[in-house]
Structures are given as C-alpha cells and as structure tokens.
Amino acid sequence: MHLRCSIPACGTTLDLHDRALSCPKCGELLEVVPNPGTHDPQDLKRLWLTRRTSYNPRDISGVWRFREFLPDCYGPDAVVTLAEGNTPLLRGQKTAAFAGLKDLRFKHLGFNPTGSFKDLGMTAGMTEAKFMGAKAVACASTGNTAASLAAYAARAGVIGRVYLPAGQASANKLAQALDYGAEMVQIEGSFDDALNSLLDANDPDLYFLNSINPFRIEGQKTAMFEMLEQLGDWRVPDYVIVPGGNLGNSSAFGKAFIEMKNYGLIDKTPRIIVVQASGANPLYQMWQSGAPDLTAVAKPETLATAIRIGNPRSWKKSLQGIHFTNGFVLDVTDEEIAQAKDQIGRDGIGCEPASATTLAGLRKLNLDNDATVVAILTGHVLKDTDYIIKMHNKQANVH
Ligand code: F0G
Fold first, then answer.
1. Nearest Cα residue to atom 11 of ligand 1
2. Reduced to 3 states, what is the DSSP secondary structure of residue 391?
3. Residue of the nearest CA to atom 4 in ligand 1?
4. Which of the 8 DSSP states describes residue 63?
5. Could you give the maximum distance between any two Cα atoms of the chain, in Å?
6. Measured between alpha carbons, how far is 60 from 82 in angstroms, rounded to an integer?
7. Whose Cα sits closest to atom 15 in ligand 1?
C-alpha cells in the first residue's frame, strides 16, 4: 500500500506514511492506493456484514469494518474510534413527493458521533496522525471538521487546533469544538483564508487534517460501501446526490465507486450529482462554462455556512469521480435550500442547511419518477439552530 499522485498522467508514488500533502513532482493532491488482496467479492461482502455482530472495536466502527479497502497497518488497539459509521438509510415520503420521485432515500451521515460525515474521515486521519507520533493536529474549518477533529484529538490524547472564519461558523459547531477541548484560532475572512493561513504557516509540529489529507478521504469513502450494503444485496441506485464545498466528500465517493467497480463488488455505478450553493458555486460555474480550470469565487456567500467555500481544493479529484460515473454538477439558491430543509424536517428526518442542497437539487432536476436516488445528508439538524430559529421567525412574521 502506498500514496500516489491523484493525477494519473503523473502517477508519482510515495511511501504510505510520507507526510507530504501534495505530489513532490507536480504539486497535485495525493491519494492512498489500497491493497484489498484477492478475496472473492461475495466473501468480502459477507465478512463485512458479519462484523456487525462483533464486539471488536474495529468491527463496531462502520469505517474500520471495511478495512480491506483502507490503510490497515494499525492493529486493533491503535485505532482512534468513536464507533462512527453505521448510519441509517431512511426512506423519504413527503420529500419524495416534493422531488417528484417514487424511491428516495437519505443516507444520514449526521448520525455520526459528532453529528457529521467528518467523523468517517477523522477516525482514519487521526489514527494515522497518532501512528506517526503527532503531538498536535490542526485543520481549517467551516465548523464540522473542527468539531470532529476536536473530539478525535481528545480521544487520541493530542492537542487539537482549529482555524475558523471569524463570525461565520455556527455557534453549535464552535460549542462542540470547545467542549472537546480544542484550541481555537479565529481568522478574519473566509474558510479559504483560514485554510491558506494554516497552509502558509507550514508548522512542522502540526499534523494537518483537512480533507486534502488522503487518509481522511479513505475513511469518508466507506459511506458508499455501507450505503450499497444497506440497499440490499448491493443494489446500485441510479443516482447519489451530495453537497459540494471543499469537494473532499464527493472525491471520496467517486474513489469508492471506482475501487468497488474495479474490484468487482459492483458491475455499474450510480451517477454522482454534486450540488453547490449558488453563492459558492465554483465547480458548477466551471461545469457550465466547460472551462478547463476552476476559477475561485472570491467572496462566497450562502446561509449554508458549511459550504461557504470559494476555492475548493479537491476539485480535480471530485471531477474524476463525476466523470467516471457519468455524473454532473448543479447549484441551488439559498431559498431553494431553505424550502428543501423544511421538507426534510416534515419527514421527521432533519438536517443542517448544507445537507438540504440535495433535496433542493432533486426538485430542480425533476428526474424521471422511477429513478432510484440516495441523497446524502451530511450534518445533523442541531448543527445550526440559529438558522432554524431565524427561518421560523421569518415565517412567523410573514403569516
Ligand atoms: N455538508 C456539511 C454539513 C459540511 O460540513 C461540509 C463541509 C460539506 C457538506 C461539504 O463537504 O467540503 O467535502 O465538499 N464542511 C467542511 C468543514 C468544509 O470544515 O466542516 P466537502
């Protein structure tokens, strides 16, 4: 198992535990090349399911349960875990009607220990950080990565430091990071500025845990393994729709489908649809214009603060998955997000604003009524309570 440049034409390889965050030859992001061996795909599927009945900490984790496709050099006691994963796949009813679909399900990653999908990547990233002897870990964040890093750093017994855009992350997420004992650095400007200042500082004593860390992507990718398992007999839906911010999560999902298909776990893939908020939509703009490169949005604006990102680092990786699965990109307005979020609540499911881009996107797309769709809900309803209260005050004033 090793690291490789994510650009196939370059393909430079590095040792798995090299701490480089980009390719020394071309500067692009790195990825982990897993080594799942030569198991019969059906045997692997059975093994993963059987692990759900085990009390081994690595089997209890919905990430490490799929360790044949992960860096797996750590041993049972070295894994930093909070029993992440094993999140539900919930059928939408009113939401399906709202989107004009018969079969709509939500893979709710907000059921993770700190309330977002970030925990799936953080268990993998923090386990590697600890393995490497890191004493302090850091990330820039719109809030959820910060909360997750803080919790897993506490578990690992290392210092967690989070860089946040001042005044732009939800109070609930800040509160989580404080509760788990992280050091907080507030940066004037956007998430992109916070990430730049962390990268520019280039502190060799800080292990870096944003999603450009390839180990994070490995953990996040398992959400798609679990989703197919839950659909029954690894039935592949027509579409998987996911919010796009820094584009790590859609990259992880694309990588999952590429690997599953190449290994023979599935014989076709769903089409990945990435949805951005219209005020923070650089990938959508690029997709629409057919431009060969991404142009950053200088001043990203959306009430879905989790995805208020103008210069997504993982856009090339994300596009690889979109192209492989014949997927596409769209955007939705803050009003469409608010309306969709309200509907998700009416199904008794709930989510944070960024997650509702998925249902908003589905309504806008008006797909064939028979299409089978899984929408990824990335964060818990309690992640941004100010947003909800403000929305409802507004409605109360209007009525
Ligand atoms: N949904 C939620 C709830 C998020 O917190 C994020 C990203 C995304 C979607 C987008 O995922 O960046 O992988 O495309 N939140 C990061 C953070 C940026 O710092 O918590 P992405």
1. 245
2. helix
3. 306
4. T
5. 62
6. 9
7. 306
Q: What is the pLDDT of residue 76?
A: 87
Taking only the tens place, the pLDDT of each residue in 65-116 is 999 999 988 988 999 999 999 999 999 999 999 999 999 999 999 999 999 9
CA of 93 to the centre of ligand 1 (A): 26
Pocket of ligand 1 (CB under 6 A): 116, 118, 141-145, 211, 243-250, 306-307, 352, 354-355, 378-379
User: What's residue 203's pLDDT?
Assistant: 87
Q: Which atom of ligand 1 is nearest to the CA of 116?
A: 3
Residue of 111, 118, 120, 144 best suited for mutating to test ligand 1, as the one with most atoms within 8 Å of CB: 144
> Which residue, among 303, 297, 280, has the nearest Cα to 170 in the 3D structure?
303
Whether the CB-CB separation of 323 and 332 falls below 8 Å is answered with no
- Give the number of the atom of ligand 1 that is nearest the alpha carbon of residue 211: 13
| Token pair for 37 | 């061996």
Distance 306 CA to ligand 1 centre (A): 5
Return the bridge partners of 184, or none. Answer: 162
Angle ∠(338,341,344) on CA atoms, nearest 5: 155
Q: What is the DSSP string of 171-234?
A: HHHHHHHHHTT-EEEEESS-HHHHHHHHHHH--TTEEE-STTSHHHHHHHHHHHHHHHHHTSTT
Which atom of ligand 1 lies nearest, measured to the CA of 246?
A: 12
Q: Can you tell me whether residue 16 is helix, strand or coil?
A: coil
Q: Yes or no: say if 70 and 34 are a contact pair by the CB < 8 Å rule.
A: yes
Residue 22's CB is within 10 A of a number of other CB atoms, namely: 15
pLDDT in tens, 295-313: 999 999 999 999 999 999 9
What's the one-letter identity of residue 256? A
Amino acid at 161: R
pLDDT tens-place string over residues 331-366: 999 999 999 999 999 999 999 999 999 999 999 999
Q: What is the pLDDT of residues 155-170, one digit of tens each?
A: 999 999 999 999 999 9
User: DSSP of 130-145, one letter per residue?
Assistant: HHTT-SEEEEE-SSHH
pLDDT of residue 398: 56
Q: Which atom of ligand 1 is nearest to the CA of 242?
A: 9
